[in-house]
Amino acid sequence: MSSIQIGTRTVGGGAPALLIAEVGQAHDGSLGAAHAFIDAAADAGADAIKFQTHIAAAESTLDEEFRVKFSKQDATRFDYWYRMEFSCEQWAELADHSADKGLIFLSSAFSVAAVELLEKLGHAAWKIGSGEYKSHDLMAAMARTGKPILLSTGMSRWGEIADSAADIRALGAD
């Protein structure tokens, strides 16, 4: 069985499981809540913590409507993504806090701009969200960093999973 390196940890090849605490968007745009999740993940014994990095201007338009209206406080998808954004400095604070707590900091990037932001922070590995498995530009940006890519397959069909894995390997990534 082969292995990969994510931050300071070996994954696979008989190494212990890497326990990732998934925050995603659960912070609801609150930097304080995001920091609290880091503390909770460390206290629970996680090895890593994973957020989602959304940049509204790179993912949406000002008037894009919700596909499914789930937010009473946000009029548009842009408004929602914008409320979820953290600045580069705030992401750096979260990454530093994670490191101080002994956690590997990870975040799913949902745009090339998000990959570029996270790469400035020394991001250890990438996760492609299940809805992004056909986002070639996003996968190519991740592959160019030379870091491991984790592919979330969600409700993909077997053929789609095989195609995505082949696409990632064709880009030179593991």
Can you offer a commentary on this structure?
The chain is an alpha/beta fold and 174 residues long. It has two domains: 19-124, TIM Barrel (Alpha-Beta Barrel); 127-174, no CATH class. 40% of the residues lie in helices and 18% in strands. The chain has helices spanning 31-43, 56-59, 77-84, 88-100, 112-120, 136-144, 158-170, and strands at residues 3-6, 9-12, 20-24, 48-53, 104-109, 126-128, 149-151. Strands 3-4-5 form a three-stranded parallel beta sheet. α1 (31-43) packs parallel to α4 (88-100). The longest helix is centred in the first third of the chain and has 13 residues, at 31-43. It is globular. The model has no long low-confidence stretch (mean pLDDT 89).
SSE string, helix = H, strand = E? EEEHEHHHEHEHEH
Tell me about the largest β-sheet: 3 strands, parallel
The overall average pLDDT, rounded, is 89
Range of helix content: 25-40%
Task: Point out poorly predicted stretches.
Answer: none
Please give the CATH class of the largest domain: Alpha Beta
Strand percentage lies at 15-25%
Tell me the radius of gyration. Answer: 16 Å
CATH architecture of the largest domain: Alpha-Beta Barrel
Number of domains: 2
Q: Mind telling me the CATH superfamily name of the largest domain?
A: Aldolase class I
Shape: globular
Main structural class: alpha/beta
Q: Looking at CATH, which topology of the largest domain would you report?
A: TIM Barrel
Separation, N- and C-terminal Cα atoms: 14 Å
Q: How many strand segments? A: 7
Domain PseI/NeuA/B-like: 38-168
GO molecular function: N-acylneuraminate-9-phosphate synthase activity
Pfam families: NeuB
Protein name: PseI/NeuA/B-like domain-containing protein
